[in-house]
Each structure stands twice: as structure tokens, then as C-alpha cells.
Backbone:
């Protein structure tokens, strides 16, 4: 859920005179690497003909996804991004990514 600059999300105005804004605690599910089942694939569609390797299926916090993406990009020696629950590596690095993920305890398809 997106939050505004005050850290609140969604509520703008309430007609209820007894309304109290209560922050909802969002607990993100965090799985250990051995419980993760990541899917590694290659894609070139909708990317101006450029080939990218996608790592999908990560369950956890955005910061953990960003850290994993950084480690994978460093290992593969390429650029990319980690956002919206997926890691994008520039180029075809499927085998390298699969081996690295398996070596670090992730389940890989």
C-alpha cells in the first residue's frame, strides 16, 4: 500500500465525528531461502529487442529483494533492476543465476 509524505495511506477525509486514524500493521511474509521457489527465465518481448533474464517468485521485503538483486547483478557482472517482486538482469544469464541461487539455498525452477 502506498503512503503519502506523512506516512499515512489512503484516508483523506472522514465524515465520522469519532473517526480515529489507526495505522494498519502490514506484516510482510518473509521466507527463508530454502522455502523460496524462484523461477528463472529469459524474455525479449516489450524490451526494445533486448534480452533480459527474469527472476520471479521472490516472497519477502522490498529491501531483501533489492539486496538479492544487487548480489545477482554483481555475480553475473551485468546491470539490471529489482522491483515489483522481480529481478531483471540485462542479457541472458539464466545458467549463472540458477547456479548462484541454488548455491545460496534457493529453490530454482
Residues:
Amino acid at each position: 500500500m502506498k503512503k503519502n509524505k506523512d506516512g499515512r495511506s489512503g484516508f483523506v477525509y472522514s465524515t465520522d465525528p469519532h473517526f480515529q486514524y489507526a495505522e494498519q500493521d502490514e506484516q510482510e511474509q518473509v521466507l527463508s531461502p530454502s522455502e523460496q521457489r524462484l523461477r528463472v527465465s529469459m524474455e525479449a518481448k516489450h524490451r526494445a529487442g533486448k534480452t533480459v533474464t527474469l527472476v520471479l517468485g521472490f516472497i519477502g521485503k522490498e529491501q531483501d529483494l533489492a539486496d538479492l538483486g544487487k548480489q545477482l547483478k554483481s555475480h553475473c557482472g551485468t546491470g539490471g533492476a529489482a522491483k515489483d517482486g522481480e529481478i531483471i538482469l540485462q542479457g541472458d544469464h539464466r545458467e549463472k543465476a540458477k547456479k548462484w541461487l541454488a548455491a545460496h539455498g534457493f529453490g530454482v525452477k
Summary: The first helix runs from residue 62 to 76.
